[in-house]
Amino acid sequence: MRKSLKIEEPDYILISTLFKEIGEELRLSFVNEKEEFQSTKILNQRVGSFSCVLSSCGLNSRGKLYVISKEEIQNLKGIPPQDFESKIDAVDWSQLGGIVITEGIRGELPLLLERLSSRVPILCSDVPITNFWSTLNSYLSFKFSPFALLHGSAAEVFGEGVLITGPSGSGKSEIVLELMRRGHSFVADDLIKVISFPFGTLTLTSGTPERKFRYFLELRGAGIIDLLMTYGPGRVRDKTTLSVVVELMEGNDKSRNERGMLEKGELLQKKVNFVRLPVKEKALTVSTIETIVLTIKLRKFGFNTKSIIDSVLGGKGDKEIK
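Now predict its structure.
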């Protein structure tokens, strides 16, 4: 891309956001759903064990999420009642990002819940512990990954993430809508969030803060369309892994001679596929994008048209072969 992007680092996520986004997957429920806890901030992607809070009297616990598992129960039972009370009183619980009780063991902690329910947000989960850890760690890694915001549109074509950029009025939204009409999926429009996650790749998602608006698309002459309601949940994606960036060019843009050629570029310090297409050929753009994505998918399986041509022609153009 021709202009550099500002890479940002997330400072925190709200525990209420975590509950909304992965609460159903982890079967989470609030023990003490209080209004003041909705704005509690998780400042650290690393999760700690609850016994560490008591053993260190809460030192270095600011904004951290702590977990109580069946294994932790045994450690807590080994603390004499008098010491247990003094340790709880020594911790500044308002500094914590929250507590999650796992494996459905809430009923085994009546005293702890009684003492802490007014001090710190507490969640419960009854999914298997291995599923809990993998989902939570992956989610926190994703939420705390570096990101950049840019204007464009994003779709998933044949299972591959496509980011479309270009000047205002170049038809980005119309292209995504036509891709949907052909059976592909919508990811985001207008404000795109590009996240450096997972390792070595980039993820595309909506940069719109309000989740209710993330599947909205503004179409010139038609207004705002709710694509989730119009096409159904099977045709929208919350996020996708970036496979290619399509940059739409104005007709007088002669900054490069190679138009429509797939090449490598850099985005958020990652190597990605780039292609530049002229705005004036909008009628062919959607078919071209589909073809480019299929070419990328074939390359993943080791099929490279250029290599085949070079092997046949020996690096010469076809007009040089007599």
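The longest strand covers residues 147-157.
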